[in-house]
């Protein structure tokens, strides 16, 4: 770098400062600054004008001194130019001397070469160049050529010539070096002189133009001030217009929000109307279904009447035929008697004729004899005898006539009766034909009505479907409208925030304008033009502006080399330090100093009144005043940082308070623990002192223990469905019926909890809960073709499922092989099948032995037929009354599977360790959800204590109650692991834990070795499978939520598994089901919230609970004031002396082989008689009152609610469907 670079930098600074001065003059002459304490920027002055002087003209004196300093620099440059001229002259003298020496050397070299050439001969001379035209280099080359080519020169001459040539070369090299040095110095001096002259001219011209332009700027300052004021006024007017526009936008947004709210209300009204229409359609469908059922029942009743009349007509016809036959017999007998009488009459006539002949003969003979007797006496005797005989004959004839007349009359009467009977029979047949025709017409009418009802029902169902679709669409529109409302509200809020920010920005800009005026005022007002200090007549000895970090050095009078080294290094350091500090200070000043929330000094670049700040700041900070500027900037930045820190502290405090309030308002986690077949008398907290259940007992101590807790059914599937839906399972057909199972019996089947039913998991998932189900499901697997998509619980609101899609079965522990063919005679079917197979094979061999191909084909067909027959008879139960059952091998390999989210993990499942595996999975889920800090719902269903009994070796034999007791204690240990996980992750205080059993213990269960495998239901009668017996539905129930649910309290208020869904929702602070899921069809819940019972130990409200056994209503429970009444409509036929239907038979009590109490229901007061030993006397006032109320409720219920057919009655849906069977795919 040349020394004139310093001059260029100062000139550039003066040019940049010129515009800043104009801005300062404009503001200072326009509005004088208010009197206030001096700003830290007040001391940013030139070193020649030290701080502390109060004349206020420091900036202008600095500018004039800068101009004087530039003139001094010009004078110094002129001096340096004179010095350089002298150096050029000296260099020129040296160059002339070198030229003279060079010419002398050339002459000497030419003479020497001439002599050498003359001595060498004429040939060489003639070929050499002329002496006058030779150069030193050419002469040297010629000499060397001559020496090397000359063969006539002596040795001495050659040496002399070589020495002379060497001396000449040295001299020539020295001359060349001196010549080059001189030329270099000369060119450098000339270039420096030219550059210095040009810089001097530029500095003079720039100084003159700067002075002229400064004068022009001073004269135009007022004009620019007016222009700036106009710009400020225009900006203010623009802000006012923008504020008005924003106000209008705000009003328009508010109007839009009001319109959207009105539209939202209209949509809500429409949605409510659609819900009412959907409910009305549901009720219409129910009414139509009821009418259809009534019509079908009427049709069946008419068919029964027609059949009865047909039977009566047939009986009457039979009786008439029998009467006709009997009368025909009697007529034949009368005719026979008539013929006999005629024969007897003929015989009597013959006898009479013979008698007359005998009398005549006697009379003739008497004349001869009478000759010896008296003639008169003989005649008189003979006449008397003849007369008597004559009378007898006449009487006989008369009787005979009478008999004939009687027989004829009887025959006539018999003929008339027969004709009458025939006429009556014909009339009856005609009447029967007419009745048949009438009944046929009536049945046709009923069929027509039933068809019309079915069609109307189908139309109603389609209407319901359309209404539901419309409701869903309306729900979607409602959701989109709500989103639009929220978006508009957000836009309105943003617009309002922008308006407020604009107002704040306006205030901040006003504050910044005042601050800038104060900052500008700190530099002092410009002096009047007439008071400018005169130029100093003497040049300043220092030729550069010193750095603020180095002392002031006087510029030494040195040659150009020292100037190039010292001045270049010093000015370069000054430039670098000034640039860095200026850039950093300007960035900090204009970017990081916070004036108002959301507005920094960086925004002032957009204002016309602060355009001068970057230039002024950079100019001021490039000199010694950078220290004071840095101090001022540091003060401002630290002040802003302190404000920011205070603001951040307040924000942090607000955030912590928000986090605390969010933690307080965070919904509780929910854990439901369901035991399988556990009796109420199996736990220590319910009075059992033979089994050890410390974890369940601890849960009861920390929560509320329900002692009158009821299941909704006596079997697994319906009871669990009621727990999750809050509705009786009979409402949606998840109950059994006669000749059908009562639970889901196959994994590969279509039955299960209907998708239309809303579960607790769906409700909680809608409230942003993470839901998971672990363990036994038993509500349908939902498998598709080839076992794809066996989502089980995931179809009903659970995000994750790990466990058994079905349940445990005794067949899982069976060892029966696939190829089962007993030959011990226990089943004669196999002997018959074997015999038929052998006979068929022998017959085929006998008939087709000479045709091998035909024999082979027939044998294959026969083998296939027998194999299929054997397979279906062995592995399916279609030939039995339990058609839904399969063989133990099929159960063990097809139904005993463990799946996770639709993927089969184990098939078959290893039962030992299953309880620990399920518990470990739940513990892992709790740990995961604790890390996610997301409220979760965990539904853990234990595999215990359902048969078969199994435990890990460590738990076997520890209980005094055998394998069943070991299973109970293993379940208790698994429950303890889950509770320990909640405690470990600090979730215990914000988690609702609910423990319950699905129904009572299985009293009749027994293992193959005779050991009991069922539980204990206390003193309550009945057990599993008995939907109305107290032992079948009275179950343990425990709720715990520290700080919310009363701890260590036992409550005898009647509660139900149906209450789970509404209770959990209310405890979690969630709205009711129809409000939480408004887009789904309305579902009437049969359960009710018992939150007041749990949190306040309040009395149970009055209610009536229905106890079903399959689809049949066997009992009702009525909570009235302080009493609990139970009315039995049917009773189980227990074994004498017990409350079981056959201990050790592994069966359940039937819901159909029962004693009917419907005519005289049995009524018990469970408060006074909890074990149902003494019914209330029939006919008493209490009996009549309570039974009347309950029967009225039952009649209203049956009229309002109709149960659909059992879903298990369909063979195609319930039985094993191999095409739906899932299998484990080996990895």
UniProtKB/TrEMBL annotation:
<keyword id="KW-1133">Transmembrane helix</keyword>
<dbReference type="GO" id="GO:0004065">
    <property type="term" value="F:arylsulfatase activity"/>
</dbReference>
<keyword id="KW-0472">Membrane</keyword>
<keyword id="KW-0175">Coiled coil</keyword>
<keyword id="KW-0812">Transmembrane</keyword>
<keyword id="KW-0378">Hydrolase</keyword>
<feature type="transmembrane region" description="Helical">
    <location>
        <begin position="829"/>
        <end position="846"/>
    </location>
</feature>
<feature type="transmembrane region" description="Helical">
    <location>
        <begin position="853"/>
        <end position="873"/>
    </location>
</feature>
<dbReference type="Pfam" id="PF14707">
    <property type="entry name" value="Sulfatase_C"/>
</dbReference>
<dbReference type="InterPro" id="IPR017850">
    <property type="entry name" value="Alkaline_phosphatase_core_sf"/>
</dbReference>
<feature type="region of interest" description="Disordered">
    <location>
        <begin position="30"/>
        <end position="53"/>
    </location>
</feature>
<feature type="coiled-coil region">
    <location>
        <begin position="204"/>
        <end position="358"/>
    </location>
</feature>
<feature type="compositionally biased region" description="Pro residues">
    <location>
        <begin position="524"/>
        <end position="540"/>
    </location>
</feature>
<dbReference type="InterPro" id="IPR000917">
    <property type="entry name" value="Sulfatase_N"/>
</dbReference>
<keyword id="KW-0106">Calcium</keyword>
<dbReference type="Pfam" id="PF00884">
    <property type="entry name" value="Sulfatase"/>
</dbReference>
<dbReference type="InterPro" id="IPR024607">
    <property type="entry name" value="Sulfatase_CS"/>
</dbReference>
<dbReference type="GO" id="GO:0046872">
    <property type="term" value="F:metal ion binding"/>
</dbReference>
<feature type="coiled-coil region">
    <location>
        <begin position="411"/>
        <end position="505"/>
    </location>
</feature>
<feature type="region of interest" description="Disordered">
    <location>
        <begin position="521"/>
        <end position="558"/>
    </location>
</feature>
<protein>
    <recommendedName>
        <fullName>Sulfatase N-terminal domain-containing protein</fullName>
    </recommendedName>
</protein>
<keyword id="KW-0479">Metal-binding</keyword>
<feature type="compositionally biased region" description="Basic residues">
    <location>
        <begin position="42"/>
        <end position="51"/>
    </location>
</feature>
<feature type="domain" description="Sulfatase N-terminal">
    <location>
        <begin position="668"/>
        <end position="1069"/>
    </location>
</feature>
<dbReference type="InterPro" id="IPR050738">
    <property type="entry name" value="Sulfatase"/>
</dbReference>
<comment type="similarity">
    <text>Belongs to the sulfatase family.</text>
</comment>
């Amino acid at each position: 770098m040349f020394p004139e670079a310093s001059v260029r930098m100062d000139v550039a600074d003066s040019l940049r400062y010129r515009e800043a001065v104009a801005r300062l003059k404009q503001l200072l002459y326009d509005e004088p600054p208010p009197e206030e304490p001096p700003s830290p920027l007040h001391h940013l002055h030139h070193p020649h004008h030290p701080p502390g002087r109060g004349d206020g003209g420091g900036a202008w004196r600095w500018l004039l001194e800068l101009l004087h300093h530039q003139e001094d620099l010009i004078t110094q440059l002129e001096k340096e130019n004179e010095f350089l001229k002298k150096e050029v002259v000296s260099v020129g003298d040296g160059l002339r001397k070198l030229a003279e020496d060079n010419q002398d050397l050339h002459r000497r070299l030419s003479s020497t070469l001439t002599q050498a050439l003359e001595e060498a001969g004429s040939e060489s001379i003639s070929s050499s160049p002329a002496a006058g035209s030779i150069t030193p280099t050419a002469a040297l080359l010629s000499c060397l050529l001559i020496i090397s080519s000359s063969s006539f020169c002596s040795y001495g001459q050659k040496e002399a010539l070589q020495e002379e040539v060497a001396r000449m070369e040295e001299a020539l090299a020295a001359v060349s070096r001196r010549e080059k040095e001189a030329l270099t110095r000369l060119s450098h001096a000339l270039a420096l002189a030219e550059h210095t002259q040009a810089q001097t001219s530029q500095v003079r011209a720039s100084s003159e133009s700067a002075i002229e332009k400064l004068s022009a700027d001073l004269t135009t300052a007022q004009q620019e001030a007016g222009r700036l004021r106009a710009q400020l006024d225009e900006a203010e007017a623009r802000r006012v217009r923008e504020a008005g526009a924003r106000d209008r936008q705000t009003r328009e947004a508010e109007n839009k929000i009001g319109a959207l709210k009105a539209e939202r209300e209209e949509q809500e009204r429409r949605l409510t109307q659609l819900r009412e229409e959907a409910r009305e359609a549901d009720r219409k469908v129910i009414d139509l279904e009821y009418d259809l059922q009534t019509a079908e029942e009427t049709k069946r009743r008419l068919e029964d009447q027609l059949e009865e009349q047909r039977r009566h007509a047939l009986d009457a016809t039979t009786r008439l035929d029998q009467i006709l036959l009997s009368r025909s017999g009697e007529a034949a007998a009368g005719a026979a008697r008539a013929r006999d009488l005629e024969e007897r009459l003929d015989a009597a006539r013959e006898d009479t004729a013979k008698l007359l002949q005998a009398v005549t003969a006697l009379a003739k003979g008497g004349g001869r004899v009478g000759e010896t007797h008296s003639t008169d006496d003989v005649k008189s005797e003979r006449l008397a005898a003849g007369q008597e005989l004559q009378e007898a004959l006449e009487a006989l004839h008369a009787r005979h006539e009478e008999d004939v007349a009687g027989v004829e009359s009887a025959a006539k009467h018999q003929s008339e009766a027969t004709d009458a009977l025939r006429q009556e029979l014909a009339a009856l047949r005609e009447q029967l034909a007419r009745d048949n025709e009438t009944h046929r017409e009536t049945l046709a009418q009923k069929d027509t009505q039933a068809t019309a009802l079915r069609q109307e029902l189908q139309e109603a169902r389609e209407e319901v479907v359309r209404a539901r679709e419309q409701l869903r669409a309306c729900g979607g529109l409602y959701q989109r409208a709500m989103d639009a409302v929220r978006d508009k509200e957000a836009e309105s809020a943003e617009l309002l925030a922008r308006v407020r920010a604009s107002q704040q920005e306006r205030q901040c800009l006003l504050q910044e304008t005042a601050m800038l005026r104060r900052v500008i005022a700190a530099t002092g007002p410009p002096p009047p033009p007439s008071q400018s200090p005169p130029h100093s007549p003497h040049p300043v000895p220092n030729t550069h502006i010193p750095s603020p970090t180095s002392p002031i050095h006087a510029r030494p009078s040195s040659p150009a080399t020292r100037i190039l080294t010292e001045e270049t290094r010093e000015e370069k350091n000054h430039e670098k330090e000034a640039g860095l500090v200026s850039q950093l200070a300007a960035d900090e000043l204009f970017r990081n100093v916070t004036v108002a929330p959301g507005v920094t000094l960086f925004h002032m670049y957009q204002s016309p009144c602060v355009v001068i700040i970057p230039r002024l700041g950079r100019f001021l900070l490039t000199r010694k005043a950078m220290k004071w500027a840095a101090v001022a900037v540091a003060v401002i930045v630290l002040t802003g940082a302190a404000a920011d820190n205070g603001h951040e502290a307040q924000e942090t405090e607000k955030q912590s308070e928000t986090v605390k309030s969010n933690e307080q308002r965070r919904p509780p986690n929910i854990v439901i623990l369901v035991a399988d077949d556990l009796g109420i008398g199996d736990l220590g907290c319910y009075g059992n002192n033979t089994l050890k259940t410390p974890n369940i007992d601890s849960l009861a101590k920390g929560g509320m223990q329900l002692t009158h807790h009821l299941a909704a059914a006596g079997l697994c599937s319906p009871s669990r469905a009621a727990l999750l839906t809050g509705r009786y399972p009979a409402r949606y057909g998840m109950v059994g019926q006669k000749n059908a199972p009562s639970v889901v019996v196959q994994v590969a089947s279509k039955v299960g909890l209907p998708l239309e039913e809303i579960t607790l998991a769906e409700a909680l998932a809608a409230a942003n809960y993470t839901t998971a189900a672990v363990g036994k499901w038993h509500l349908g697997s939902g498998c598709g073709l080839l076992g794809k998509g066996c989502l089980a619980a995931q179809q009903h609101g659970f995000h994750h499922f790990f466990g058994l899609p079905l349940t445990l079965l005794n067949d899982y522990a069976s060892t029966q092989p696939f190829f089962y063919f007993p030959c011990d005679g226990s089943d004669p079917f196999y002997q018959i099948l074997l015999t038929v197979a052998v006979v068929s094979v022998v017959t085929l061999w006998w008939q087709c032995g000479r045709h091998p191909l035909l024999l082979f084909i027939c044998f294959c067909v026969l083998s296939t037929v027998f194999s299929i027959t054997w397979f279906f008879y062995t592995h399916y139960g279609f030939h039995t009354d339990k058609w839904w059952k399969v063989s133990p091998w099929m159960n063990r390999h097809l139904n005993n599977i463990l799946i996770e989210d639709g993927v089969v993990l184990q098939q078959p499942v290893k039962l030992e360790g299953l309880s620990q595996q399920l518990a470990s999975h739940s513990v892992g889920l709790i740990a995961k959800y604790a890390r996610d800090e997301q409220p979760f719902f965990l539904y853990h269903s234990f595999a215990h204590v359902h048969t078969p009994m199994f435990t890990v070796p460590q738990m076997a034999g520890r209980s005094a109650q055998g394998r069943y007791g070991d299973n109970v204690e293993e379940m208790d240990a698994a429950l303890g692991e889950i509770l320990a996980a909640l405690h470990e992750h600090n979730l215990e205080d914000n988690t609702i834990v609910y423990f319950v059993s699905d129904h009572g213990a299985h009293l009749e269960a027994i293992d193959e070795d005779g050991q009991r495998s069922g539980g204990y239901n206390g003193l309550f009668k009945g057990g599993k499978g008995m939907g109305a017996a107290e032992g079948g539905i009275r179950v343990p129930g425990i709720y715990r939520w520290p700080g919310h649910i009363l701890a260590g309290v036992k409550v005898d208020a009647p509660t139900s598994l149906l209450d789970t869904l509404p209770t959990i929702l209310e405890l979690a602070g969630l709205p009711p089901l129809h409000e939480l899921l408004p887009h789904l069809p309305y579902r009437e819940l049969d359960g009710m919230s018992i939150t007041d019972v749990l949190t306040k130990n309040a009395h149970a409200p009055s209610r009536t609970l229905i106890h079903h056994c399959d689809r049949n209503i066997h009992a009702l429970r009525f909570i009235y004031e302080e009493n609990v009444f139970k009315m039995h409509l049917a009773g189980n036929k227990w074994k004498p002396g017990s409350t079981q239907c056959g201990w050790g038979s592994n069966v359940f009590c039937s819901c159909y082989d029962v004693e009917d109490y419907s005519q005289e229901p049995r009524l018990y007061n469970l408060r006074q008689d909890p074990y149902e030993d003494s019914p209330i006397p029939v006919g008493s006032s209490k009996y009549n009152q309570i039974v009347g109320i309950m029967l009225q409720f039952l009649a209203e219920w049956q009229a309002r609610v109709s149960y659909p057919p059992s879903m298990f009655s369909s063979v195609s849906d319930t039985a094993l469907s191999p095409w739906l069977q899932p299998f484990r795919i080996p990895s």
